Amino acid sequence: MSEYLLPASEGALAYAELYERVSSLIISTPESITSVGVPHCPKWTVKCVLSHMIGVPEDVLTGQMEGVTTEAWTQRQVDRHSEHSKTQLLAIWSNTFENFKALLPKIPQPTISQFVFDQVTHEHDIRHAISQPGARDSRAISVAEGFIRDFITRNPDPAVHALAESTVTGFDYVRSFSGRRSKEQLAELGLPADLVAAFISTSPFEIPARSIVE
Q: How would residue 161 be classed by pLDDT, with cut points 50, 70 and 90?
């Protein structure tokens, strides 16, 4: 087991908790909230982000993994749910979760942690968009943090490898390495902004041009 990766069972539990947390959050908001823009995903609304969060386990269950992690793959998830209301989306997610939870314990590391990393990243994108911060010390954040730190240790560049030892909080670590912090914000956290930006440039994420304060 990696120094940083949490057990796969923690990843499965983290997603189950995240599903309950986010679905409860969305239930408590008016329908109009789904049309709110998401600053961390400027091309998307809350509905788009939620559609992606639902679409990933849907695609895993149905084997629709061609182009996984690409923009085309995620856009298909958004398009698939474009006509659904908030209530319909939540019903679809509930049904999907009922089928997906049986698969969760069978997903190995680091795949389960990568999945949680994606989901918790978007949980906080939504929370920021609708001004409902919280759950910054959740199990999902811990699982996602472990995934990123472990992934970084596998980089052959000693300077990049050293980023795994950063002492920033788990929440800020996850947000920093998912392209949710500008270079100015990275520097304020004590992270080498140019190095982090170069590392992130090899991923599906990118450093935002302006700071978005959460």
A: very high
Identify the bridge partners of residue 37 per DSSP, sorted by sequence position.
45
CA dist 108 and 29 (Å) reads 34
User: pTM above 0.70?
Assistant: yes
Which residues are CB-neighbours of 81 under 8 A, at least 6 positions away?
47, 50, 51, 54, 55, 89, 92
- The sign of the CA dihedral 142, 118, 152, 214 is negative
What are 45's strand-pairing partners? Answer: 37
Which region holds residue 116: left if phi is over 0, alpha if psi is between -120 and 50, else beta? alpha
The CATH number assigned to the domain with range 8-200 reads 1.20.120
Spatial distance between the Cα atoms of 79 and 76, rounded to a whole number of angstroms: 5
